[in-house]
User: Fold this.
Amino acid sequence: MPRTIWSGAISFGLVTVPIHVVSATEDHSIHFHRVHLEDMARVRTRKVCELEDREVATSEIGKGYEIARDQIIPISDEELRDLPLPTAKAIEITAFMPWESIDPIRIGDGYYLTPDGQVAAKPYKLLRQALERSSRVAVARYAWSGRERLGLLRVRGEAIVLHAMRWPDEIRDPSELTPPPVELSDEEIDGALALMDTMTRDDLEGEEFRDTYTEAVAELIEAKREHREPPVAPEPAAESGQLVDLMAALQQSVSKARESRGENGAHADVHEMPKKRAAKKQPAKKTAAKKTARKPRKSA
Assistant:
């Protein structure tokens, strides 16, 4: 059982669900220590007071907000914990929305919410089944680690998952990254759709979805431990330096994708696939990006 990260309650309307929060993911990546290469001794980070020029213990360290270079306001963990916020002790649901209306760029880490004892089992199941039957997700506010956050609650199996969400003003406007206008033919679009069809999957299981980087690092460590040469990376293919013919590249990509799926006999002709033709779109006129003034947001 994963350790409890936070305990509180889910609140929607007058219904309260006491819950524990546990991590929904595991980190299987390989971590390294910093070492002194000359003698392989550990290199550690020491916390030193700038004025006294000495290392200080954790018990001597607190939080401070810098108003000016010579003025810092101390803030204690107790003061942050006792802020008059309804979200300090509860995950307060504020709205229900269709899952499709949530922009994935706003969704962060996920956590499982588990009912806190028998008394929470019934309201927990009530909320889970209501979310499942309505095909909606809940948007909530909660306060963790010194700040108020926005969250999303959804159903996964028999559990409710809480995803951290970014506030609207934390998402950068992508309009300045929009590429210049270009013309695309119907054949090129159909070729891309044909490639998508050959690469469509029903799940994320298989060799393509293995963490090959972590496996390669593990093999490197094992080879060095056994004093043998690690595997050699293959030489990358030399680039021709010529402009790529888009239709030819699509044709070859479809062919390779079909071969990898065992469809060796199929001819990759993207021109012959059934298609719904849409009227050609003229290059969109550039519109000035709307600038919205940022309102300061108080954090807990």
Remarks:
- The first strand starts at residue 4 and ends at 12.
